[in-house]
Amino acid sequence: MKKLLPVFLLFLLYSQKLMAQQQPQFTHYSFNGMQLSPAYAGITNRPEVLSIFRYQWLGYDASFDDGGSPQTLLLTAHTPVRLLNGGVGITLMRDKIANTTQSGVALSYSFHIPIGEAKLGLGVQGNYNKIKKGEYRPNQPDDPFVPLNSSDTKYDLGAGIWYESSTFYAGGGVTNLLKAEYEFSNIQDNVEDDVKGTFFSENHIYATAGYHLPVANMFILTPMALVKHDTETFSFDAGAKVTYEEKYWAGVNYRHKEAVGALIGLGLFTDNSLRVGYAFDFTIFDRVAKAPTSHEVMLSYRLPEPAVRFKPPVRTPRYNFTK
Known about the structure:
The chain has helices at 8-12, 33-36, and strands at residues 17-20, 48-55, 71-81, 86-97, 100-115, 118-132, 151-164, 168-175, 181-188, 191-201, 204-211, 213-216, 219-229, 234-244, 248-255, 259-268, 274-283, 293-302. By secondary structure, the protein is mainly β. Strand 12 and strand 13 (219-229) form a beta hairpin. It is globular, with a radius of gyration of 23 Å.
């Protein structure tokens, strides 16, 4: 799924309603369940904090003062909560494309249903999003085609499902259920001008799966896939990674009509609680309109499973003996 290019700003200047994708993409999608589905919250039984920084199309220049390369910073945290029969999580994101910055915070709750040794999560999410268009210099003062208000904020909702076992995972989610409408208007002397741009946040649907397959002593092969769809485009990622002793991993990825990629990483400290990863994408489609490479850095820290702090009472019968 291609990123929305800065050119959408030009449409805003001509009073057109724009419906397009806004969600960023990550090559580390197999580590990033919280961004794909609110049902992922707490499903692994381990509290976790994860951060990914993606610099897409390094060096891309769209003739904007700040360049045109999309830069995305993602931070997620989630934990199981037994008292809630599930888990909770939070997602923070900042996505910058040229002079436009989209930022947001999402709170997630997942209700967990035990299925044998596996779990099924049903999740809901509340979002608070802000789009800030930045500052622009019109060619002529008071140009009516340059909107003056610098930002707009909206609330939205999401939902998802996730299945997790020791050998297989599958899940997905849908965003922007309310289809929030962001509006940028030209306001002169406290009087709203007729020139107005509207930016619609369309539904984005994600579905992902992976299977952990032991192939040799201490080696695990994980085929993985991610399907993405919005109102205009369909895309998918498919790849695989090999993990050694649950500590080192390396993999490859293909993104439909976009790029091929590779990822490497390792675990550090006890129980590999700290994970560090790097991913590299090489653009193979529409290279004239993009830059050749994209880069990602991932950091995550996983805590041990929370201990049971209380034991349920055990009822025993009382026996009365008589002679």
